Amino acid sequence: MRNTFRILFYIKRAASDRKGHVPVMVRITINGERAQFSAQVRVDPRIWDVHAGRVVGRTAAVARLNEKLSAIQRRIEYCYDHLILRDGTVSASSVREQFFGGNRNREQVLAFFRQHNDEFCRMVGVNRSRTTLYKYESVYKLLKSYIRIRYARNDIAFRELDKNFPVEFHRYIAHEVPHEKNTVWVYMIALKHIFMLVHDRNCLASDLFAGYKLHSSPVMRDYLTDSELRSLMQLDPVCGKQRLVLDAFLFSCFTGLSYVDIRRLQPSNIRHAPDRSWICTTRSKTGTEVYVRLFDIASAILAKYQHEDTEEPIFRLPSNGWCNVCLRRLLPRAGILRPITFHAARHTFATTITLSQGVPIETISKLLGHKNIRTTQIYAAITHAQLDDDMERLSQQLRRQYAL
Questions:
Q1: Looking at the predicted structure, is the pLDDT value of residue 372 above 90?
Q2: How far is the CA of 381 from the CAs of 258, 344, 349, 367, 373, in angstroms?
Q3: Cα dihedral sign for 314, 318, 324, 328?
Q4: Cβ atoms within 10 A of the Cβ of 240, count?
Q5: Residue 404 pLDDT more than 70?
Q6: What distance in Å separates the CA atoms of residue 64 and residue 84, rounded to the nearest whole number?
Q7: Do residues 53 and 69 touch, judged by C-beta distance below 8 A?
Q8: For a tag site, which of 82, 140, 141, 207 has the least CB within 10 Å?
Q9: Would you say 229 and 357 are in contact if contact means Cβ atoms under 8 Å apart?
Q10: How far apart are CA 259 and CA 345, in angstroms?
Q11: What is the mean pLDDT of residues 152-157?
């Protein structure tokens, strides 16, 4: 039977870097089966010819790019012919594997992980979070230490791993390093993602995480009660830095914005209407668009710091760690003795400010910029005040319905 064999070069527009350049991808199609990989080049999408699968232009740089793509195409065609002559049959994935040396299982674990982190780093600030990069870097360091201790080597090939690997690495970071259960959970999810990428690229014959269960412990989401919030609003810090941190914290309590989103908030994110104002921004963590109404308290705080430079942040906050240090010094003065971090302001918005006031959980999810409402249900713990009110209403209803 005659094979339908096609090579397509296309650009991945959703993965642009800071310069606006996008990666060129290669797709091999044989009898309807597809296999794809990166050509390891980036181009300006404005000069990409979709029909030709090449860059348009007369410069030397354009010529070099097009020659590299042509060389890739010739190499793929050679691999296709080689497999046909050798085996008599061919598939898109086998051509791709032949292109990469015939056996990509020889790739090394840490080398693959390092390449992933380097590529991730280049996309930070575009469509990736620096916080997530730190997570992957932490897992990479732990994995590097584990391989050195467990195997007495600097790296190990994927083909040498078995299904015990995730379990043994889990035990290492949980008991020998050690880390808290939920930290281990987060790290193992990150490692599972890496191995999914490896498996998708046919570097692993089987999914090492198949049947492996990941569990986390429930965490109490701390927040300020109505009385605690009122006490905190009465504080008048003498230090300007503490005043800034306190105002930003209160602003978060009444808008639900996270520390990183408040730190990057600019005047251009504020939309004014005749009778109301809104914050229109995108969450750094998820890329979700967020629209939050500015109520009186948040508007008053914003007016103290807003300026005309639309490209500069409104709140020139110090690091998140230093903000938490300031809060540890301020909170006891308001009678709040338990440890509270800046992120607790977001929990306060979800509970004291919105949920306890009867705002539907679906609306809160939109305001917080969550992609999944289950995340909101974790944040929005039922407050004691709401629980008392609900039980009192139920008590009165039962008293009327079942009067003795």
A1: no
A2: 18, 12, 11, 16, 13
A3: negative
A4: 8
A5: no
A6: 30
A7: yes
A8: 141
A9: no
A10: 9
A11: 87
Both tokens of 49, joined, read 């010819």
Contact predicate 351/302, CB 8 Å:
no
Nearest-angstrom CA–CA distance, 139 and 193: 12
Q: Which residues contact 366 (CB under 8 A, 6 or more apart)?
A: 290, 291
DSSP assignment letter at 400: H
Three-class DSSP category at 106: helix
The b-or-e profile of 374-391 (16+ CB within 10 A means b, else e) is eebeebbbebeebeeeee
Q: Are 263 and 244 spatial neighbours (Cβ–Cβ below 8 Å)? A: no
Given the structure tokens 């079942």, which residue do they identify? 402
Give pLDDT tens digits for 13-25.
888 888 889 999 9
Q: How far is it, in rounded angstroms, from Cα 348 to Cα 342?
A: 10
* 383, 349 contact by CB (below 8 A): no
pLDDT, average across residues 243-269: 93
- Nearest Cα to Cα of residue 290 among 265, 312, 273: 265
Rounded to an integer, what distance in angstroms lies between the CA atom of residue 68 and that of residue 134? 34
Backbone angles phi, psi at 250, to 5 degrees: -65, -35
Distance CA 294, CA 269 (A): 12
pTM, whole model, 2 decimals?
0.56
Return d(Cα 325, Cα 242) in angstroms, integer.
10
Give the residue ranges of DSSP H helices in 257-343: 259-263, 296-305, 320-330
Amino acid in the structure at residue 253: C
